[in-house]
Amino acid sequence: MTTHFSQLIYTSTPESGFKLLTSGQVPSLVEQIFVEQVVHQHWNAYDPPDAGYRAVYLHQVDTLHTLFGWLYDDGNDELGRGHVPYFVCYHLVGPLNAVQLESIFMCLHKGPVAVPTRQQLPVKLDPVNAPDLWSYQPARPGVRVGALHRQQGHAALEQGKLIDLLIAHEQPLPAPAIVGSSQSRTVRLAPLFALPELHTLRRAVTILDDPPSKDQSRSRLLLIAVVVALLLPFGLAALFGLYSRQTQQKLEVVNQKVTSAEAQIRAVGSSGVQKIEKVEQRLGRTEQQLGTVVRRLDRTEGKLQKVDRTDRQLQKVVRRLNSTESRLNTAERSVRGVVASKSRERVSGSKNRTAPIRVARSAPRRYSLARRQPSTVSPRLQTSPELSRGLSPSPELARYTRLKEQQAQADSTRMFGLYRKNRKS
Asked: Residue 18: what are its φ and ψ, rounded to 5°?
């Protein structure tokens, strides 16, 4: 069972009359159901029971809340009014099983752990620790729960129904007397579950041995019926007592096993909670490390993307450089060809300079026009000695001048390309 119960007490107090006292853990709905369905149902103030009345009750609010306890007729109150009820109730939280139900029946049979007096009721009740059913001493006697009520409780539990039982303590009644024939043979019935008196059985056997008469035959038949009625309850009581003892022994064994299992579960549970906490701490640290690794991977991925972009840009630059280099090679070959041709022309020109220069009659006029329009003449031609003397340049000189200008332009283009290349790198 559970380690402790919440407690409820309903009785009359000297200061405020009838009052309900509870532990702090009892829900308000359970308090209301206890007053309405237990107190008001099991106690009628207009028709109270006899003095010394006591009973036990078991009431399930739902599958998770169970109320069980004792009802006592606590005598007179301070004003002299009689039949003051005293309800002692324990509140069990959690689903109910067969072993717990049997333990509740045994606790109801034994009695409550503590019962405060009505004159010294506390302001607030404390929870009650679950008692050891084999060793605790009850404050007041309980009521024995018979086999029929046990059977009803277990049947309702198996069918999933809510249990509602009230079992009152039965006072022993005087045994009735059965009068025989005219000889006034009186035989008293023995109490239930008790042995018949030995002298009664001997007398019945003696009467059966007498010679029969008509009246005696009737008396003997009646006496046989009485003997059978005496022996039958005794046999049934013996069988029931044997069955009850065996059942109680089995229940004791089951309760011991349940107690040891609960102790093992508590031990394993405490160590398991510690292990779970350690594992959770490790998982937390691992999760933090994974977060750090993920952030590093994200940064690395960004860097790799930048490297990829840089690589693509470098590839473009390399392609441009290759194309520029091919163009420069082409230009260099063309320049070399031009230089070679110029060198050849220079050699051929030096040979032709020894020949006399023939000037046409229209040469002065052309040079005069050239002097008037210097912008149309090359700077090299303007500084040539032929122009200075007023003569027209030879075709070889003009061609050489053009080649020189083309070479200078190619050299400037090449140097500008090399400048741009060095600047980009």
From this structure: -70, 135
